[in-house]
């Protein structure tokens, strides 16, 4: 961490609102500080970047859309976080997720506590126009306390990142590519047979959907406490 | 080795060449090898021996000669005649060729070097193709190899080399056409003690084989280009990321690196200076996305080959977070000639914004399929009709697909346009790495779009949603249309979804994946409509033409 006096303050605008940022702050951080809501799905405070592309914004002078979660604020930037086109793109991204795997809320234990569901409601995705792919994935119930239902997974890789970056176990990883990509534990063994899993439950707490859940919990009990800011704070104080 | 010593080897090689009056160059690049040109080589050699001509006639294994349609190829000197379609099963033809070396060529198999396919080319990258033995460094040195490198080290400053490349106007030959000199200068200026140079040899476009041929036919040219780049930007370590599907290229690269190290042209203290540069070959495991620079770097590091957002650009933070220069095989192969002949010479070739030449893999429904190098700005019509020799079977031209799965289909109305970066972009395609697939009237554009979409769907890494699910959905829609089950609103959906994927995908693979669909929809919309409304494929390529519904309509 640089010393405070090394910070250089940048001023920029997001959706016409003048905001200021410190060096190395991302557009997403600045926007949230200023109560400008940029939709995200894979992003999780305290973890490194993912790639859901929901947070892409327009920056004047760039012909590319830039992800707010990794783009650093720069002096004089003119950022558009909300436009009819961005809204249309974001809706379509959420729609694509709904077509990819089985996201039927009525039979999901996370209904009501699901970030995908909430995002769909927020963006107004009330129906799906593309054909359902509903690719068939396995469900892994071999773990003593947890269940992984890959049919619900959105491949945000939060579980992989929290397991690697915070717990240090790196039990989760990805196998395959493209539409055939799946989250795996260890080298593809059943979760219950994993030698690296510490059963800490961090992956359960960061999963945005109903892919990773605790056994024996009913829908109303599936609230997920966000322990991560607390853990990071404690870790920071210990160091 | 010093420059003087190098020139001495070159001189010896030239004298050795003069000593033999006749030469038979046999192509042993992968294309000809697959048609047993190695056996042709052996037969020719034993026939020469039988006649006791070893002293005056040399049979030599060389790299690609370009005209794949007529392989295996050989060329005889001093007649300067190509012989086509030779076969080890017809040794009498080979005997006749040797017997007639001093007189008229054997007519049946002879090809004149004045054929437009050869005569209309302008060879810089392919200069030594069909001339030198790719497995002998002395042969390469005899053709001027490594002279540019040693000249740079002894006579030029790092910055002078960078400036020379900037002035030449060379643009990256990998696809996007980013100015090479600018990239070099960025890496040279980036702070850091450790810098890297990486050569992208993960050529993966369907129908493209330019880089493979360069590596198989003149590997030293690429090594020299990398070493000059390393000298210019201050790198000490280099990697060649070559796909494992190119075993011959990998083999020859490894031989070339060993030979160059032995002569002190790579490794520590190159040219007896303080400059050292080592090159290692890294193999790709077959993922197309690893041709994308951030994914390639991840793969070289030993991680899963998936792209990451830029910035930071590799020039500032690449391999192991160090400044990294990443160029394509063909880009590196252009470096030595620019240093030797000067930036002005290079800049005098080509068009205003696209300098130099471009190597194309001309494939598909043309008579002369093969590898060609032409000046930038050449007319597309000349490529197809002059060099390509026209469409096979005298059929009608329909479209040419450039840029592989990231490119588009160019219809007949643009045949007279110039082939350069800007012109290709303006019609919805890209230069790409140089694949050029010519299609005749029997090609179905829905089928073509489906083929490329199937490719990108399969090669998507799955990291970002727009590419992972978007390409799958695009492919699904195309499949539905090709089966005669499409609806008119599917066309609108193709456009809407394509635009979203193009704008929001994480890397170049996804951002360009919808191009084959959008370009065919733009120029051949009627064909899509016929598939939907009539449920027939006029060319009979799609499943709908075979379905019961189609039979009923017909």
Question: Which SSEs are present, and which pair or pack?
Answer:
The complex is a heterodimer of chains A (239) and B (554).
Chain A: E1 10-14, E2 17-21, H1 27-33, E3 56-59, E4 65-67, E5 78-80, H2 84-100, H3 115-123, E6 139-140, E7 146-149, H4 158-167, E8 172-175, E9 182-185, H5 202-206, E10 212-214, H6 228-238
Parallel strand pairs in A: 1-5
Antiparallel strand pairs in A: 1-2, 3-4, 3-5, 6-7, 7-10, 8-9
Chain B: H1 3-19, E1 22-27, H2 30-33, H3 37-50, E2 57-62, E3 74-77, E4 81-83, H4 91-99, E5 110-111, H5 116-119, H6 137-142, H7 147-155, H8 158-168, H9 180-189, E6 196-201, H10 210-217, H11 219-233, E7 237-243, H12 247-262, E8 278-284, H13 293-300, E9 324-328, H14 329-333, H15 335-341, H16 343-347, E10 357-364, E11 370-375, H17 380-387, E12 397-402, E13 408-411, H18 421-426, E14 435-440, H19 445-459, H20 465-482, H21 488-504, H22 508-512, H23 515-523, H24 525-533, H25 548-553
Parallel strand pairs in B: 1-2, 6-7, 6-9, 7-8, 10-14
Antiparallel strand pairs in B: 1-3, 3-4, 4-5, 10-11, 12-13, 12-14
Helix pairs in contact in B: 3-4, 7-11, 7-15, 8-9, 8-11, 10-11, 10-12, 19-20, 20-21, 21-23
Structure description:
The complex is a heterodimer of chains A (239) and B (554). With 239 residues, chain A is an alpha+beta fold. Chain A has 6 helices and 10 strands, in the order ββαβββααββαββαβα. In chain A, the strands form 3 sheets. Chain A has a 5-stranded mixed sheet, covered by helices on one side. A 3-stranded antiparallel sheet of chain A has the order 6-7-10. A two-stranded antiparallel sheet of chain A has the order 8-9. Chain A is globular. In chain B, the strands form 3 sheets. Chain B has a 5-stranded mixed sheet, with helices on one face. Residues 547-554 of chain B have low confidence and may be disordered. By secondary structure, chain B is an alpha/beta fold. The chains are: A alpha+beta (239), B alpha/beta (554). At the A-B interface, helix 2 of A face helix 19, helix 20 and helix 21 of B.
């Amino acid at each position: 961490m640089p010393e405070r006096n090394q910070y250089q303050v940048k001023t920029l605008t997001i959706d016409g609102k003048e905001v200021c940022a410190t060096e190395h702050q991302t557009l997403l951080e600045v926007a949230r500080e200023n109560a400008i809501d940029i939709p995200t799905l894979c992003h999780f405070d305290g973890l490194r970047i993912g790639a859901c592309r929901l947070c892409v914004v327009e920056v004047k002078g760039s012909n590319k859309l830039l992800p707010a979660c990794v783009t650093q604020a720069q002096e004089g930037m003119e950022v558009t976080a909300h436009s009819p086109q961005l809204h249309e793109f974001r809706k379509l991204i959420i729609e694509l997720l709904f077509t990819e795997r089985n996201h039927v809320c009525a039979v999901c234990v996370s209904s009501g506590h699901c970030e995908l569901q909430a995002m769909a409601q927020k963006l107004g995705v009330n129906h799906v126009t593309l054909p359902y792919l509903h690719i068939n994935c396995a469900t892994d119930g071999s773990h003593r306390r947890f269940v992984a239902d890959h049919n619900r997974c959105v491949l945000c890789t939060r579980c992989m990142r929290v397991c690697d970056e915070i717990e240090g176990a790196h039990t989760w990883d990805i196998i395959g590519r493209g539409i055939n990509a799946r989250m795996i534990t260890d080298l593809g063994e059943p979760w219950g047979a994993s030698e690296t899993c510490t059963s800490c439950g961090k992956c359960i707490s960061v999963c945005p959907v109903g892919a990773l859940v605790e056994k024996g919990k009913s829908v109303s009990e599936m609230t997920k406490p966000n322990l991560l800011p607390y853990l990071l704070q404690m870790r920071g104080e210990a160091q | 080795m010093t420059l003087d010593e190098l020139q001495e080897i070159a001189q010896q090689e030239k004298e050795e060449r003069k000593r033999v009056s006749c030469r038979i160059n046999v192509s042993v690049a992968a294309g000809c090898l697959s048609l047993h040109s190695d056996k042709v080589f052996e037969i020719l050699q034993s026939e020469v021996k039988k006649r006791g001509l070893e002293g005056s006639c040399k049979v030599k294994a060389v790299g690609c000669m370009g005209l794949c349609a007529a392989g295996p190829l050989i060329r005889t000197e001093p007649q300067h005649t190509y012989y086509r379609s030779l076969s080890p099963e017809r040794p009498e033809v080979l005997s006749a060729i040797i017997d007639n070396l001093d007189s008229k060529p054997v007519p049946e198999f002879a090809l004149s070097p004045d054929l437009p396919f050869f005569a209309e080319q302008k060879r810089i990258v392919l200069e030594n193709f069909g001339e030198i033995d790719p497995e002998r460094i002395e042969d390469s040195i005899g053709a001027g190899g490594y002279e540019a490198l040693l000249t740079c080290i002894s006579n030029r400053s790092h910055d002078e080399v960078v400036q020379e490349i900037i002035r030449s106007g060379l643009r990256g030959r990998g696809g996007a056409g980013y100015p090479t000199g600018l990239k070099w200068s960025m890496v040279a200026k980036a702070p850091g003690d450790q810098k890297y140079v990486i050569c992208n040899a993960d050529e993966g476009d369907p129908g493209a084989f330019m880089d493979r041929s360069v590596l198989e036919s003149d590997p030293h040219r690429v090594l020299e280009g990398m070493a000059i780049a390393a000298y210019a930007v201050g790198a000490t370590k280099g990697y060649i990321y070559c796909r494992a599907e190119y075993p011959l290229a990998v083999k020859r690269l490894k031989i070339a690196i060993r030979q160059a190290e032995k002569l002190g042209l790579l490794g520590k203290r190159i040219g007896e200076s303080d400059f050292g540069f080592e090159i290692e070959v890294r193999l790709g495991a077959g993922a197309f996305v690893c041709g994308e620079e951030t994914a390639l770097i991840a793969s070289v590091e030993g991680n899963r080959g998936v792209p990451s957002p830029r910035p930071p650009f590799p020039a500032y933070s690449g391999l192991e977070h160090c400044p990294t220069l990443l160029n394509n095989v063909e880009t590196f192969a252009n470096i030595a000639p620019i240093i030797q002949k000067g930036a002005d010479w290079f800049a005098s070739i080509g068009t205003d914004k696209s300098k130099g030449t471009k190597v194309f893999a001309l494939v598909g429904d043309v008579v002369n399929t093969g590898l060609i190098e032409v000046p930038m700005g050449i007319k597309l019509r000349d490529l197809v009709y002059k060099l390509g020799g026209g469409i096979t079977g005298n059929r009608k031209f329909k479209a040419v697909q450039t840029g592989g799965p990231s490119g588009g289909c160019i219809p007949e109305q643009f045949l007279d346009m110039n082939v350069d970066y800007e012109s290709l972009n303006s019609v919805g395609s890209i230069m790409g790495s140089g694949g050029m697939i010519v299609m005749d009237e029997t090609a179905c554009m829905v089928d073509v779009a489906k083929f490329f979409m199937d490719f990108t769907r399969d090669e998507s890494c799955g990291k970002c949603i727009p590419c992972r699910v978007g390409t799958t959905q695009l492919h699904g829609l195309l499949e539905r249309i090709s089966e005669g089950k499409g609806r008119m609103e599917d066309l609108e959906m193709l456009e809407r979804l394509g635009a979203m994927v193009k704008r929001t995908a994480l890397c170049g693979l996804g951002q360009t994946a919808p191009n084959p669909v959008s370009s065919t929809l733009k120029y051949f919309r009627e064909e899509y409509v016929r598939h939907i409304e009539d449920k027939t494929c006029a060319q009979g390529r799609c499943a709908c033409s075979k379905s019961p519904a189609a039979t009923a309509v017909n």
